[in-house]
Amino acid sequence: RYATSKGLGVVPDIDLDSMATTDEKGRIFLIDDQPDQAERLRGMLADDYVLSTEAEPTVALSRARLGEFDLVMVNMSIEAADPLRLCSSIRSFEETRLTPLLAIVRQGETRKLVRALELGVNDYLTRPIDQNELIARVSTQVRRKRYIEHLRSSFQASLEMAVTDQLTGLYNRRYLASHLSAMFDRAYWTGRPLSVMVLDIDHFKGINDTYGHDAGDRVLQHFAERIRQSVRSMDLACRYGGEEFLIAMPDTDKHAASLVAERIREDVAAQRVILNGGRDEIGVTVSIGIASTEDGLKEDSAQKLIKRADEALYQAKTGGRNRVMA
Ligand code: GH3
Ligand code: MG
Ligand code: MG
Ligand code: MG
């Protein structure tokens, strides 16, 4: 284990050892017009790599783009095309921009080699090629490439984890905080309404107490799914607290938001939630409070909007629950 970051919680562990021991053979693409050399290289690499070869430069370029190779090798003595241009093309294509590139040069071809390195070639081999050196240089590049790919996908995953609530898959409160004020500003400057609804499950503590915490979690997931089914892609739905959710709806006035809220309320009340593997089945209700920018003061803020939606929610609770207040 090279890098762990348990303390942060959002960054997945990086296990380099398991990456290095992947069963899959590396995929190498060789652009070369000398079949005997290609065969020799294929033999030298056969234990850990699958080598594909191509002699025709234009065909080679399209194959390099489509082939998802771990490494591309270019014989810099190829005659049918300018091998330097070949290298720079490979560097410029989106699909091969980050693919390691290895140049094969003749002894004394220093100027061509320097030019190739300037164009972004990662490493080189001098002919006659030594097998140990070949394997060392190839494996270094392939490992580096896989490591970078791994970092990129873990980074993507941690970005998602950082803004997502794990239990429900909805956005978390942190994401809401970073987006709601922008939504609010946009509503302010465009003069379009923005509505916020706060939803709180009724007597949720009783569900936990009677059926257990796991059953409570299950209810939260069920509820989150009902929300997901009810919002548009432009809406921002998040888990705001334990059993409290918030939906921010751009271009939506209080009347339209009330219709959506009422639909969610009815939908939730009409469904039964199956708990504990079918042993229990319960009904759940939700109370909803709504606030909209159009009935606020000009100097209103996103925080004040949430506060007003919370006050409306309180009215819904004290008014008997299972209702919408706007
Ligand atoms: P009300 O109708 O007034 O909203 O009553 P309530 O019981 O729903 O409200 P209260 O705020 O008293 O209780 C919320 C409960 O939600 C308390 C807490 O233990 C529980 N809770 C918070 N987060 C989670 C969670 O992630 N999973 C589970 N199962 N329960 C949670
Ligand atoms: Mg409560
Ligand atoms: Mg509640
Ligand atoms: Mg609550």
Automatic annotation (TrEMBL):
Record field: catalytic activity: 2 GTP = 3',3'-c-di-GMP + 2 diphosphate
Keyword Chloroplast in annotation: no
The GGDEF domain, residue ranges: 192-326
Keywords: Phosphoprotein
UniProt GO MF annotations: diguanylate cyclase activity
EC supergroup of this enzyme: transferase
EC number: 2.7.7.65
One GO term of the biological process aspect: cell adhesion involved in single-species biofilm formation
An annotated GO cellular component: plasma membrane
Signal peptide span: none
Protein name per Swiss-Prot or TrEMBL: diguanylate cyclase
